[in-house]
Amino acid sequence: MIFTAGQIAGILEGELDGNPEIAVYKLAKIEEGETGSLTFLANPKYTSYIYTTKASVTIVNRDFVPEQKLETTLIKVDDAYEAFSKVLKVYNEVKKNKVGIEEPVFLPDTTTYGENFYLGAFSYLGSNVTIGDNVKIYPNVYIGDNVKIDDNVVIFAGAKVYSETVIGKNCVIHSGVVIGADGFGFSPNKDGEFQKVPQTGNVVLEDNVDVGAGTTIDRATLGSTILRKGVKLDNQIQIAHNVEIGEHTVIAAQTGIAGSTKIGKHCMIGGQVGIVGHITIGDNVKIQAQSGIGRNVQNDEVLQGSPALNYGDYNKSYVYFKKLPKISNRIDELEKKYSEQYKNETENN
User: Fold this and answer.
1) 81 burial class (0-12, 13-18, 19+ CB within 10 angstroms)?
2) Active-site residue identified among 241, 248, 266, 278
3) Which of 3, 214, 271, 318 would give a disulfide with 236, using CB separation of 3.0 to 4.6 Å?
């Protein structure tokens, strides 16, 4: 993909200072800019690099006034960082705008799909799959029977979506994700052997859900495992059967959530958090990394530790925890001192 400085200035509604015909085909940091690259200057501490960068085009704020001769063409905008972010979005959309069905794929007659559909090679789609407009399914993806995928969904290479799953609009599912595998449901019999409990439910992702690479979301035993609109999951997260995650909650990598737990809206959960099953976590809760949650959590709580404590209490306790050896020595010295004093007083009496 090649763009001229003039085209980029037009997209950004910016003021061009330099050659409008100079072309760029890649993006770069200002200190690593090369011929043919587009970069930006937003942070003043990087200003020195604009005089040495080899980037063909640089986006700057309108108030930037060079103090030396420049080799790079400038595009002046109100906010260079915001403008570069806009360029990244356009670049991503163009790069990902694949259309068509590659070969070989398995695509039964019972599958329906909308406009601007892309299906990568070696993908398998089951029976009665329904797919909306502008959906991109990359190579080596498995889609099970009766799956419903709404508009503008992207499923990256190697993802597995089991039967009956429902995926809303504008969702992004990254490589290695498994959605709809059986929940961890086993019941012991009288001999102490564990027998499988059939997992007959499904998974529902509402609109604007992002699922990071290697994450697994189990189907419900009955009913649905549900991720409400705007949920963002990092890589390598485990969501167990019948879990429900509220709107616009974000969860960092390597977190595990056990079955039937309900998590509220606008929560922020750090990495490597462990959450037991069958509890309720309220809205606007913040859980620090590596915490263990074993109880119901009220709205607006901030937690840390394992088992988790109130964040403020944890920090106060940790001050003492770090000093435990010194505190223990002081207690031993005090016990020794007063033990000898008591002994002397007893003998004198």
Assistant:
1) middle
2) 241
3) 214
